Amino acid sequence: xxxxxxxxxxxxxxxxxxxxxxxxxxxxxxxxxxxxxxxxxxxxxxxxxxxxxxxxxxxxxxxxxxxxxxxxxxxxxxxxxxxxxxxxxxxxxxxxxxxxxxxxxxxxxxxxxxxxxxxxxxxxxxxxxxxxxxxxxxxxxxxxxxxxxxxxxxxxxxxxxxxxxxxxxxxxxxxxxxxxxxxxxxxxxxxxxxxxxxxxxxxxxxxxxxxxxxxxxxxxxxxxxxxxxxxxxxxxxxxxxxxxxxxxxxxxxxxxxxxxxxxxxxxxxxxxxxxxxxxxxxxxxxxxxxxxxxxxxxxxxxxxxxxxxxxxxxxxxxxxxxxxxxxxxxxxxxxxxxxxxxxxxxxxxxxxxxxxxxxxxxxxxxxxxxxxxxxxxxxxxxxxxxxxxxxxxxxxxxxxxxxxxxxxxxxxxxxxxxxxxxxxxxxxxxxxxxxxxxx
Length: 439
Known about the structure:
Shape: globular
Helix content: 25-40%
Structural class: alpha+beta
CATH superfamily: Anthranilate synthase
Strand content: 25-35%
Strand order of the largest sheet: 2-10-9-4-3-13-14-23-24-12-20
Largest sheet: 11 strands, antiparallel
CATH topology: Anthranilate synthase
């Protein structure tokens, strides 16, 4: 019999290490071709063609799922624990750090049957991970299995088994006008409203759509999170954050205008966007929020002196880059918890805008949340999940939004939403290739 004293001082068993095999593979590998060969498994794909990076996680060695107000903090702790326990054995000295892949939703919880396979925050250490960087491709493999699960069942937890009907143009215009009334009354400074559209396509080819996106949107991060039967995918232009060492990069992207019909019209539109009082108000709300939030944790902060006009296939946007140096080390998901959701996807004040969106909008799920990766060295890249869609039960649902500030016009904001929806719609079938190439 073990004595009481001995029992109190007994050592806890050591947390097991996670053995990972690392090997260099062929330089020319195609992540989507590999995905097609493993379509029956959970998959997470992320690729940034212009950045020269691509990643694919196949299967789930460790799945981390969290929910509620502390979901990002809880996930940050769990992700760091996993990454700290990785044992790469005899890996080559020049091998990159292994990664976890995943993302999180706009809100603390998710409603709706279509999102049944998605936790509010979900990251995985895959059984097999392919990583392409700096012209070389690597493969990480592990036989280890473990699960960290701190998220309730999505459908039952939210009491929702079906989605409300799509919003009509009349309903959208009315919602914009109500938002403007709240802004005029001083309840809000800004709110970002979103709309969704759906269509049935039982023969939808997800990998072909992803291939068109990465080909036509090389300056964007093309992604897909597929836990089982459903898949959230898209090609987003907006970075939430990038960390490397004590460096933190983020950006404000808000303010939108359509492309011109010829070079002269394009230049005129770019100038109109730069000088638009309405778009500058919308943009400055994001810049101000990010600067005020980061001042408390950063020693140096450098921002673009003026927002630049950046061009993407569907539209042009105002962008301000922010580079900063952290006072102390911080986990990427802890930093994400500080700045998500930014006024670019939510509003000002954040709490009031969030509550209104929860009350009035169709469930966003992971749309305007984030997708990306975190590696064992603390380097990370998390993108805002825009220009995206959910594939569930043969139905593709797309989302897009627009920032409402004083001076917004319901019809103009509706046109902006259509511009952004077309960025996804044009890539869903081969028939959209010509439109994509002309953009």
